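WARN no homologs supplied; continuing
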Amino acid sequence: MPASTSCDHNAQYGNECVTATQAAPWINNSFKKYAINTAGEAAALIATIGKESGDLKYAHHHFGTPQVGKGTRNMQMAKFNVEYAQSIQAIGDQVAAAHGDAGKILEILIGYGDYDFGSAAWHLVTQCPNVRSGLVSGSDDGWDKYVACIGASPGDGRLDYWHRAVAALEVKTS
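OK structure emitted
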């Protein structure tokens, strides 16, 4: 994410911004935790995080139709954030205390870098396992299937993020 080298903390939502240098350990931790072992899968997650977070500027869904609880760095839907949070034993007491309130659960998740950035890998592994092999090849077809699985539209520059991540990670495309 070349546009993520600095943050303007005075900008609107500037308190959510992190740099690529800050994000890298959290992203790498998620790859380890969820066994993201191929460059193609890593490229898909990095592309999604980059696109959805506005190059790491946002952790909450600020634009478009308001959706309470939508966020983390892959702008995951609230229902998935609830499932994701419930899968993390270390925050189990906090999640239970939120009583299913998606907004509170989102705040818990984004309060921890590993969980904020880990949601993309969790989603791939638990919600989209059938598209993982297609990402390994670095193909646009594999990407399209992944994008459909995450419920996103293929437009709005999303493919450009994919191509940049594939190139940066030197994914051997087939």
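The two ends are 24 Å apart (CA to CA).
OK
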